[in-house]
Design brief:
The chain has 400 residues and is α+β, with helices and mostly antiparallel strands. It is 68% helix and 11% strand. The protein has three domains: 176 residues; 71 residues, Single alpha-helices involved in coiled-coils or other helix-helix interfaces (Up-down Bundle); 133 residues, Histidine kinase-like ATPase, C-terminal domain (Heat Shock Protein 90), CATH 3.30.565. It is elongated.
Length: 400
């Protein structure tokens, strides 16, 4: 099965936890089935001690080697030659010894489990073809051995190996496929968030180009004309330079207006943009905003709340693994309270930050929030944030 793009360990995120769960599920299945099935035979005093010891060691080696190979597969790493030889050799011994002793019930378990682990490193089509080959080969070995040794229950010698291949193979390939799809969806979610941020930057760059491009081009042409006229027609040169001055002033005013509109957009627009960007990044957003309350706030507090929404949204896209977020604006003691909550906080304990009433800072978790906290404090507001388990909550309050 193709390995696809490697996924880095993200230090405790949901994706890493899912990978560990898949590994434990697969490795645990191999260990439990082999341990319980072969264990009874290994502990049977009627079986010669030498055969029991050899089978027990081979089964344990098969479990360890399969676990190591599964770990490499879950990290999209190629199988090492040492573990391949160990898994293959141990599985052969763990199968041949019980088969030679006439136990047609357990001999195929270790080979079937090992084959199911090894085919995970093959492309999808070759993996299923290999399982199909094992589904034919192992029952054929059981059939030939049963006929050669005079085993009366030939059917049992055939269907038991087939059952083991069917039990191990599709289940393991399915779990690995689920892991691959999850990893690719997570990559797509992150990429969507990055594209949404890039789209906003391009929009601003295009607006800036539209304003500056025309003015600068005309300024360059008129400056060049003024330089040519400076000696022969000073009056016309001066007129051209006055037009250049006017054009430069117009460009400056329009640029300031653009920047102010970008930085001081309305709270409603910021919430709508945050909802759109987060949704594009795969985050389910719930916006509960009192529109009349937002419209009644003074310009300065309303603009600062818009910046809080923007900063919190940026933090979610860049630093979290959120799947859900909520943006709530409610009345609060004659003013308003904005709460932005998401479930994507990084693990590592509770963290919080805010500003005190006198403007001094407490613990911080990012310079962007700290700067906004200081600006809100200057207009009589307050900004705080707290991270607890997987939740990160930003709360801003302003006076009306």
């Amino acid at each position: 099965m193709s390995t696809g793009p490697a996924v880095a360990d993200d230090g405790g995120s949901g994706l890493a936890s899912f990978r560990r769960n898949v590994w434990w599920g697969l490795a645990g299945t191999v260990a439990c089935v082999l341990g319980f099935a072969v264990g009874d035979w290994v502990l049977d005093p009627d079986v010669p001690a030498g055969l029991r010891a050899l089978t027990g060691v081979a089964t344990a080696a098969t479990i360890v080697a399969c676990g190591a190979l599964l770990g490499r597969r879950m990290r999209d790493q190629a199988p090492s030659a040492g573990w391949l030889v160990t898994a293959g050799g141990a599985a052969v011994v763990a199968g041949v010894v019980p088969l030679a002793a006439g136990n047609f019930g357990i001999w195929s378990i270790a080979p079937a489990a090992t084959v199911s682990v090894l085919v995970m490193f093959l492309p999808v089509r070759r993996a299923w073809q290999s399982l199909g080959a094992a589904l034919v080969a192992l029952p054929l070995v059981g059939l030939v051995t049963a006929l050669a040794t005079g085993e009366p229950n030939v059917a049992h010698a055939v269907w038991m190996p087939a059952l083991m291949v069917v039990a191990f193979g599709p289940a393991m390939l399915g779990m690995v496929r689920a892991w691959q799809v999850t990893a690719r969806l997570d990559d797509a979610r992150r990429l969507a968030g990055q594209l949404a941020v890039a789209d906003e930057r391009l929009r601003f760059a295009a607006d800036l180009h539209d304003i500056q491009g025309h003015h600068l081009q005309v300024i360059a042409l008129k400056s060049e004309l003024a330089a040519r006229l400076a000696e022969v027609e000073p009056a016309r040169a001066a007129e051209q330079m006055r037009e250049v001055q006017q054009l430069a002033g117009d460009a400056l005013r329009e640029t300031r207006a653009l920047v102010q509109g970008y930085r001081r957009t309305t709270l409603d627009a910021e919430i709508a943009n945050a909802s759109r960007v987060l949704a594009a990044a795969g985050v389910a957003v719930r916006a509960d905003v009192d529109a009349d309350l937002a419209a009644s706030l003074p310009q300065a507090p309303r603009s600062l709340l818009g910046l809080v929404v923007r900063e919190a949204t940026t933090n979610v896209l860049r630093h979290s693994r959120a799947t859900r977020a909520a943006i709530v604006l409610l009345p609060d003691d004659g003013g308003a309270r904005l709460v932005i909550d998401n479930d994507g906080a990084r693990p590592g304990g509770s963290r919080s930050g805010s500003t005190n009433g006198d403007g001094s800072r407490t613990s911080s978790d990012g310079t962007g929030l700290v700067s906004l906290a200081e600006r809100l404090d200057a207009v009589g507001g307050r900004l705080s944030w707290v991270s607890d388990d997987d939740r990160f909550v930003v709360t801003a309050t302003v006076t009306g």
